[in-house]
Amino acid sequence: MSANTAVAEKYRNNFLKEIEEQVEMGDWVKMCMQCGVCSGSCPTNFQSAWEHPPQELFMMIRAGKREEVLTSSSMWNCTSCYNCIVRCPRKLPITHIMHGIAEYAHRLGMAPKLQPTRFFSGLFWKNATKTGRVNELKLSMGLYFKDGLGAGIKEGMKMKDVALGLMKAKRLNPFEIIKGHACKDQKGIQAMLKKAYEIERSRKAAKVAG
Amino acid sequence: MAKKEYAFYPGCSSQKGASASNYLTSVESMCKTLDVKLTEIPDWNCCGASIGYAEAGELPRHVMNARNFALSEQHLPGQEIVATCAACWLGARETRERLTHSDTLMADTREALKEAGLQIKEMPEIRHMVEVLIEDLGFEEMAKHVVRPLEGVKIAGYVGCQTNRPFGVAGESFENPMYLDKMVEMVGAEAIPEYDMKVTCCGGALAFSEPEKAQAQIKDIVESAYDHGAEMIVTPCPLCQANVEIYQGQINQRYGTKFNIPVMYYSQLMVVAYGGSAKDAALNGQVIKARRLEEIAAKPVKR
Fold first, then answer.
1. Which of A164, B83, B183, B200 could form a disulfide with B9 if both were Cys (CB 3.0 to 4.6 A apart)?
2. Is this structure's pTM higher than 0.95?
3. A30 lies in which domain range?
4. Pairs of residues, one from chain A and one from chain B, whose beta carbons lie less than 8 Å apart
5. What ipTM is given for this predicted complex?
């Protein structure tokens, strides 16, 4: 049984409970009173980038629209500006709930594969945790070359002037491709993260089993 | 002995050859003048930033920040942690808040830290550099060192998101924080308190992944600065600085605008006003050169 079918079976007809137990800050969803201030405060929602703005997602969760919520590209449009959090009259940590739903959809393999911010988010975390510090050059290259060599060169050419400007200002170092900044105790960091993932996984699994 | 001492968390973007290396150079010069001693936390790691969320999960993200707390406690006991980067400060503060409020998260974090041979006994205070300047030193102390006021320079104070929300600087409003305007006035320049894009989001990480969305926001931020007669923009955040500065060329192509406005850090303005050279203020780190500041930095100091 896939991870998705296991949880779908456990939380059948109770998607709200699934979100409460499996998503970071998910237990806040039921507090939403549908005022829409979050949607009206969201910078990317102004560009109509959100298929379903936050308050709509909250209602959809309560209505059990599991497939529609988890496969939506909406949450991935969050810029982490925290405007929704500070304006929410019921103090829901909306930014974190959006990240949480996105992370859960990604974990289940239901998030839209081609959503560029989903790709970048994973790339960033892997880049940062590999050595303990971000390698900005490899991060940019990883993004441009995500669709293969040809597309990468085309993307890279588009960014040529931006990159040259930064290099002239000594804010982008081409040698980072060979040797970038890194933590000394990388072994400790990897062991610590491995443990953290283990604990988190077992806590979530216990809720599915319980 | 220095007037103030802190455990310093510079963050990835401030490292040599990275996108905010000019921020670090100017902060170091600024702190020298103000007699603030920053000691780098040995072997500090990335905060995970807000954009790592797809893979980070909850505990791994907090464990990353907790490792820095543990290293700080071990090597620099009793010192508050100061970050210059908005995202580092926010990430670390958020971890501090979550661990303080959840015994389970705290216990799980301690267990994971053990794997790296580390432990936390006490939760450190997490401060942003602007908090140190405003709260620990104060405007009067900051103003004392001004020997070369930036007279006649009109500057739009762009606060952005993450130094302002969800935590922000104490006593400031989320919608219209005033501290950056006060800092602009403190260095003798002209502030624009009515600059209406001061807390608009620059698009954050979407500037990389979905540039058209971020650039639509950056366009508004820059346009409003021009509309208010600003000669330059100033910000306390490394990602705001980079996003608002380096994509102006692409925005010009996309929208047919003619943007070419310098985007500075508060620390760069302060270093020039404190009598520092263009090099001390890392003015050579600008992609869009701040000619007016370079001219002022070349002038003799009024003592």
1. B83
2. yes
3. 3-115
4. 218
5. 0.96
